[in-house]
Here is the input.
Amino acid sequence: MGDKKKLTLFEAASTVAGLGVGGAIMAVPFLASRNGLATIIFIMVVSYLISLLLHLMIVEVVLRDEEPRQLVEVFGKYLFMKGPVGTTVTWLFFGLIVVTFYALLAGYIVGCAEILLGLLGIPILFGKILTYAVAAGVAFFGLKAVGLCEKYAISGIIALLIVLSVGTLIQPLKPIPVFAGDVKKALAFYGMLMFGFACFFSIPQAAEGLYWNRKLVPWAVVIGIALNMAFTFIITIMALLVSKEVTEVAITGWGAAIGNWALIVGSVFILLAILTSYWSVSYALALILQERLGWGYRKSWLSATFPSIVIALIGVTGFLGFMKIAGGAMAVLVAILIVPALRKSRVQAAAQAPVFEMGFWGNTFFQIVVIVAYLIMAVGSVIPVK
Here is the structure.
């Protein structure tokens, strides 16, 4: 593969973290504020562990092949029936992923454009075009460029989070109730958190970049999702400690409490977080198109990214809102499908020594736990909270 696709462990972990660290991270504190500290910590830990189980199941399946397949092809190989019916189901799943990813990418462009308007006064139209040029431009150069940019963006996010945390801790702090909320509020918090930890489609990219030592892929996943959890937990606690009212976009209330400078720093934070998601999602989609359609990478890249700027310029907000729901549905669908795919892959590759195997943590009990946990996530994601 050569150095053009070689990633370090931190670059691979950043690619995993980048896919999940997008817009959801700033929505979590609002839902967390409806619960007590004990519930927040408990759900945060449970969500991390459940997400880790599912992602490591995906790692095991992906690493059973010499060349890492995208999830569409993984399910096509191990799960969907052979013949016309199986082919049709695979194409339908492919179509669902493509449409969902287009909408997510368009949403990232709109989000960045709104931040650029607030920060620099750049008109929304030019902000969308500038965002597309920067975000899609990185993906154009392939995996190594994506990995490097993810690494620097994640490092920048860590630095900005430290600055915001220090600025928060020198303010008068509010007590956080230990016990508060109810089952509905806890479920809503859990649903959003699990959505924010979903990094499924970045795993084949981590495997591709770590071809030089495939045993590091599980560690990239462990570290990547841990980064997501750490960012989310710190933002949540800091927002709860100082915000007069935790707003739906956490940085608004948080920044108002500690100064206008925090709004600027927080806006840059969100900008980086959204860009990391665009890079990971667009690269994943380009590879999905390349594998399924047999195109070259450049054509696949253009087909993966260009529709997102078209949708963003048209401004189909209802469509984007619908696709946010579809994104949550996609997470649940992948969770349900990966378990039978895992079981089938173990049967088909029984004679081979796997690069990675979950052992006890991948047994039938934990497979059932993962499916049930993601079905509960689906319930939590549709619960309205005021």
About this structure: The chain has a mean pLDDT of 89.
